[in-house]
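Standup notes
- HV: blocked on the assembly model, inputs below
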Amino acid sequence: MPTPTVFMPPRHYLNDGYGIKSWLLTRDHKRIALLYLASVTFFFFLGGAMAVLIRVELATPAGDFVTDETYNKLFTMHGVMMVFFFLIPAIPSVLGNFLVPIMIGAKDLAFPKLNLASWYIYIIGASFTTYSLVTGGLDTGWTFYTPFSTVSSSSNVISAALGVFITGFSSILTGLNFIVTTHRMRAPGMTWFRMPLFMWSMYATSLIMVLGTPVVAITIVLVAAERLFHFGFFDPRVGGDPVLFQHLFWFYSHPAVYIMVLPAMGVISELVAAFCRKQVFGYSFVAFASLAIAVLGFLVWGHHMFVAGISVYAALIFSILSFLVAVPSAVKVFNWTATMYKGSVSWQTPMLYAIGFIGLFTIGGLTGLFLAAVGLDIHVTDTYFIVAHFHYIMVGGTIMGYLGGLHYWWPKISGRLYNEYLAKLSAAIIFVGFNLTFFPQFVVGYLGMPRRYHAYPPEFQVLNVLSSAGASILGVGYLLPMFYLMWSLRYGKIAGSNPWGAVGLEWTTTSPPPTANFAETPIVTWEAYDYKPTVEHHVA
Amino acid sequence: MSPEVAHAEAHHPALAHHFDSLEQQSEATTLGMWVFLVTEVLFFGGLFATYMIYRNWYPDAFAAASHELDVTLGTVNTVVLITSSLTMALAVHAAQLGQRKLLMTFLILTMILGAVFLGIKSVEYYHKFVEHHIPGPGFQFEKEYVRHAQLFFSLYFVMTGLHALHMIIGIGIMLVMLWWSWNGTITEEYSSPIEISGLYWHFVDIVWIFLFPLLYLIGRHAH
Amino acid sequence: MWTGTPLFPEQASTMAGRVDNLYFFLLAISIFFSLLIAGLIVFYAIKYRRRDPNSVGEVFHGGMLLEITWTVIPFVIAMIIFVWGASVYFAMSRPPDETLNIYVVGKQWMWKFQHLDGQREINELHVPVGRPVKLIMTSEDVIHDVFVPAFRVKADVIPGRYTNLWFQPTKPGRYHLFCAEHCGTRHSGMTGEVIVMEPSEFQAWLSGGGPEGSLASAGAKLFQDLACNTCHRPDAQGRGPVLEGLFGKTVQLQSGETNTVDEAYVRESILNPAAKVAGGFQPIMPTFQGLVTEEQLLELIEYVKSLKALPQVQPR
């Protein structure tokens, strides 16, 4: 069996120009992806630090670690940072930016300068929000409900809201770029149905980014206007309706959760294909399921408002639609599972994350059924049951997908391999820590512990202590990759162009790729995931 | 295409390196502008939805408040904007035919009409200020409708203000287009910047076409 | 530490059992599918573990039947859950005809409960076991939420309107009441207790009485103090509609639409009289916005409710 030659190309995108200007003024989508990587990692750990403080407080029933006002600011900033500055941008702007052009055989995205602008917009928005954090923080919850946020809160609502507003444009521009790129920049022979499923997920995500984000943007404008000028859109004393805010807010924020999870699902499709070395079962069903999730996701926002005073009939419509949107996700899970049947299943770290995702997303998604059932949601909404549900999807789902993708494409991005033993260990620690943190929250939520409480009745303590213990383990699990991934940049083994023996355009070019991605524009004549009888046929 | 043309195009100064041809580039930028305009529809859409809900709840107060707006000025502004869309379309046409002087003339006319629109808007805003119709502590209105009329005017200022902001940006874009027309960047082969600027301008016009009847024409019947 | 750690809330209302049954059904489905998927992926990961570093997976086709199966089955299960959840929800949103009504006013960061015969409570709510209770709620400032886990009920409490929830307690005892909508600094402190008593004890507690008498009698006094009676006269000679016997009826408005005279309509007519003027009357009623508190509004509502229709005077 011939050993493939493994080498680091002399010239690639990382050494094609040195100096800070070549990074801060780059138009290379791969460098922009790394700029985003640095930024989202920073906010992940900042939001994570807030989570640590929250769990420390919640280890005891009394509110004795921080004041109630500080606690309100902690969970608010945790939510704002995690949602807007980590979960929404992470996979699209890091992995998406890096991979979308390469996966379709293009030299770059359609609008490279706009891509760089989107990063600067992100940084400006993040700076506003960080400024609001440093000068006193925000205490409204990441959901900004009126009239508390417009009339009652004395915290930095406007600067935080402005930060989120600005960052929204980063999201819109990224989505716009991806849509145009997918339509217009595919290499010869790369038809829609030959694209990797990651591309379908990114496309569906981009549709949501482009259609949903503007609505939350205008909602934030109205909140800021009301707070500044006392306009009264949501103030009942002037005839405004506070519940209208909730409709406008959730019209975006529900699809936003699909912005957070669809890209992760795209990563999982890639991981399952690569680490079973076969085409994803039911390719077109998975592709259409992504689109179905994007479309249906816009129709269910009212399920966040079952107790908010909406009519019985509205509630029932939102309920049935919420059940519908679960079906395409279930279809994907079944297809991934079927892909593993008779696959050549590797246990390398990215696959561990993929398996973890499938298990945890299934649990998180199933608990979504509990919430779509209105009669049951009445009891569990606004409790820790909801907190557990969305963390299973966001953390058990999205973050595992993100880490799996980061590990899978790390050799392509950096040219190096990380330490497999440490990586597996971290994945295991994360899996254990995660479940210990969030599973007890289902139980304490059904018991009736409301969310956003910093002091609670003593009978809830044991479950909270379990959760806090889990959080400390989870924190360790997240810190480890920081170290071994950074270490690999200098000391890791050279990866070569296709260390995994995977099929995909990104694996046909060098690791790291040249600035123009390919020596020559590829001409595609094969189907997606076209794994030949043995892997030798396509390992470079 | 012939080797000479292909060669010339490959080195066309306006062709970005990541595109294969000017045609691909202009198709991409046009699609990009359409996608952007869809986001703008959603952006204004949230506002329009809010407006429609409150108008549905407080029709009398909204009608009374709407009657305080100057229909004459609003109509003039509507005509001004529609005309500016005409001059914009003519500018695009001139660009596609490589008629540089005509292109610049129409661009300038478009900007002038845009400025006229903004000028008339400022006059209207000034009237509102004088009549104490700016929402806030100084707001005054007939007692029966004062609360909900304030809501109307809040929406009026946010909606027309957002629209005016888009107009100002549009005029800025036209300035850049004018500069590019003057210095030879825009040619018969490379007229897509004018086209997509035109798309943007028409969109801003269309938003006004919705704003005007919604805000100014509540309950006003032709006599 | 483990004693005193319940893992499941107690059932203290007639609806609790129904909610829990749905929960257990969902739990069973979730456990089944989680074990199925987790089992399969772990099983496949082991069974098809890559032994030769060069091997690839084996593609198999004929997936259409599978795709349809695992689309239709989840869909059917989802619809079953939907119907079940909807039926529980219907029962929760339709209070029985005869309920013991109690008014709730939430404000940062306390709960004020007002019984009809004048008893006022702060953060504690006494109710009798075995009778359906309806809470009619509003907020003085921001959105709050009344949540009683043991009853499995929850509803937002919104400024500017009334929302309600109902429950029928089945067990005497003391149960947590939480505010379940983030409302500011002391949101976690805005808790209370529902105290369910045997009917006789509840009567005894109730007959302690409120300082100002019943809500309706307080409302009667307010009705006079605010001069409502100058226009709303029982002899139909006033400039405003006769209120006797009006509550609960459907009236035709000036605009031609009809409206039911419920708590919300009475409240709106006091605060924003021009909004829904009764047919045949002039829109001359002044607004009392800013002149009455939420509690006074409740008193006036209870007074209007108490006004029975006068016997018709038969012309001779």
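- HV (later): unblocked. Chain A touches chain C through 103 residues (CB under 8 Å). The longest helix of chain A spans residues 68-103.
- Next: hand off to the docking folks.
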